[in-house]
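About this split. The held-out portion is used to measure sequence recovery: a designer receives only the structure tokens and must propose an amino acid at every position. Recovery is the fraction of positions where the proposal matches the reference. Here is one held-out target exactly as it appears in the evaluation file.
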């Protein structure tokens, strides 16, 4: 079986996109890991598989992390897939179904906007292990403490720091992701002020590690910054890969706007598709 793929990215947050709408593709955890491997496979932050949609959407988007696990949401991948579907349909508006719900997307001025849905702020929705005020969660490691909890289709813990650049991301990120307070693990953001309605964010993604840009993380950071009184509802979030514009509307929905690009296309080797766990 020949399986075509497209390598895409949003600000360096990169994806292998496979269209399985007409031919179902059952990928094992090991196969997903093999494809995502940057040395032996294609390499990506997430593997995206398009499937037939329900609920009137244009496609269902399944998201696999490099560890083979499934993620509920990925904003940058949603924008990449939206650009493909828009080109396919000759439209500037599409709807993409995910595990987290149906996400409407629009295009304007060379950028793609996705409505990530409402920000969820209750401790049960994050989720966390015990009742708490999610504006000040009781999690600390070293000098990092007092994160804000936000669910944007997936769980986030946002730490506000004086200098996001100074945080030892690869040291504290894995520990915080797997902290016992987060039963479903969590994406971890480190955020510092960068001017009027601008924030700098670095991220450790659940199941993916340090990435150039995390769309849902940028949304979580913007919501957290507004809740803390640091910014307005419309924020420019400066990521390692570049800026995203995030708006937390009065109705609770979070809009994310930014660019997308295709790096290359190709076909997957059978060895990747048939990979099995080493054990």
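Reference sequence for scoring:
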């Amino acid at each position: 079986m020949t399986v075509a793929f497209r390598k895409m990215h949003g600000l360096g947050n990169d994806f292998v996109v496979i269209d399985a709408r007409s031919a179902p593709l059952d990928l094992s955890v090991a196969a997903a890991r093999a494809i995502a491997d940057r040395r032996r496979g294609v390499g990506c932050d997430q593997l995206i598989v398009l499937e037939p949609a329900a609920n009137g959407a244009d496609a269902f988007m399944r998201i696999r992390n490099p560890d083979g696990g499934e993620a509920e949401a990925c904003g940058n991948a949603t924008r990449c897939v939206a650009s493909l579907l828009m080109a396919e349909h000759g439209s500037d508006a599409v709807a993409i179904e995910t595990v987290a719900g149906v996400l409407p997307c629009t295009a304007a001025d060379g950028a793609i906007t996705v409505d990530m849905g409402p920000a969820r702020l209750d401790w049960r929705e994050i989720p966390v292990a015990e009742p708490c005020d999610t504006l000040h969660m009781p999690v600390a490691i070293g000098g990092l403490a007092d994160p804000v909890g936000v669910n944007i289709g997936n769980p986030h813990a946002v730490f506000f720091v004086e200098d996001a650049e100074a945080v030892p991301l690869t040291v504290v990120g894995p520990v915080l992701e797997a902290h016992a307070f987060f039963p479903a693990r969590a994406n971890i953001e480190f955020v510092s002020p960068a001017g009027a309605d601008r924030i700098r964010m670095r991220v450790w993604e659940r199941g993916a590690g340090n990435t150039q840009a995390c769309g849902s993380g940028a949304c979580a950071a913007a919501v957290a910054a507004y809740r803390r009184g640091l910014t307005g509802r419309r924020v420019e979030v400066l990521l390692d890969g570049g800026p995203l514009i995030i708006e937390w509307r009065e109705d609770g929905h979070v809009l994310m706007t930014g660019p997308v690009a295709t790096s290359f296309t190709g076909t997957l080797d059978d060895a990747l598709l048939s990979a099995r766990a080493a054990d």
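Annotator remark: The longest strand covers residues 3-10.
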